Amino acid sequence: MNDPHGFLKFPRRPVPARPVQERLSDWNEVYAGQARLPLVSEQAGRCMDCGIPFCHSGCPLGNLIPEWNTYARREDWQAAAERLHATNNFPEFTGRLCPAPCEDACVLTINADPVTIKNVEQAIADQIWERGYAPPRPPERLSGKTVAVVGSGPAGLAAAQQLTRIGHTVAVYERADRIGGLLRYGIPEFKMEKRHLDRRIEQMLAEGTKFRTGVEIGSDLDAAELVERHDAVVIAVGARGQRELPVPGRELRGIHQAMDYLTLANRVTQGDCDAPAVTAEGRHVVIIGGGDTGSDCMGTALRQGAASVVQLDINPEPGDVRSDSEPWPVYPKIYRISHAHEEARGRRGADPRVFASATLRFEGDGTGRVHELRLAEVEPETRRPLPGTERGIPADLVLLALGFYGPEHDTGLMRQLGLTLDGRGNFARNAGFGAETADPPERAARRRTGGIFIAGDAGRGQSLVVWAIAEGRSAAAATDRCLSGSTVLPAPIAPQDRPLVA
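That's the Glutamate synthase subunit beta sequence above. Prediction below.
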């Protein structure tokens, strides 16, 4: 076990990011080249190895955090790698992208600063690759069963890897030209360099997983035919239905969905083109939406050379400490600064966000292009605009980062498989991740097993990367049980599980 007094000897010290001006001059990760290991080993020693580690409850994967903290403190990276991989297929993704609800569930958080769990996880994940602790793990024997996975985001990749390693023949279908889903085109390079994703794909190819890009199921390939060709199908298409903002002036040029903007920027860093079709260079950028996608747009716009960037959040500014209604160990809504906010603050000297504000309309410049955004303060409870608070701000480029309503509706995939929606607009599924379909009996009878499973945001709704991986692992276990009669694959969550809340 760790030193039981480590948290008394060492204060919390996160790994520092690169200086703001340095990282704004490139697209490399904000931590690229930073020395981690000595600091991480010290910080891992702050873990108390609690009798009841609530960090497990904060993490849907059930990561064995105290165990790999102990090994990281001893700098036994191979043992740490084994314990980290025991519950997580892609720790290099979560170590960079997850907001670390495990840290807010750390027992130290009751009256002190939590362990820097995310830093430790990322350090171990990087050591896994640097020291060769992630060799391909092809199955010892094949089951003779075939599985199609539709979608190659974190849920689809996790499901595919688990099913391949257990012995099934798996093909992953992706409508984009590259594998990765939002990991590829939605996450900016400065948050996760795509070499980490490419490395995992190479590992999966060596294990036997097959990938089919540029194929949209329901359009390029009939979904019912896909089901008839395979013993099981896992639907992991994500929650790609983008919310709209129906206010006057929405039709003006220069107003774009955030994910479309991020995709264009990511294609530049992937080498597809020299410059994006939509750029923030020299423009006054307004981002509508206060979440992570909005923050990603801000960091992207700053690197493109925006004249100014403002982010609008309809929610009131949160406090610095937990409210009584959000006690430990829940993940609280407190004031947080992302790396992008830090970068914008360095230029303006103030938080780039405007809280408790709503967009009333857009004004044009006379040529059909957006020129100004009119906003107003809102009443916190009802979110209704307050009279007398309307004002305008410059807006040459507006990005809508309002989140996603769920999987795209009324698609060929949905119609051809008879998929139905639950009350929240996601694909309906049962307690075993099986799709709830409205199939006519004659079509259901043609299936080889009737196994259609829903994994990730398509069934859960917009969520975190760590929940997507947990969903993929659990859906893989359900699929294997359907095909084999039983399974040894872990199932960390059930479809009805939700984050820990008060």
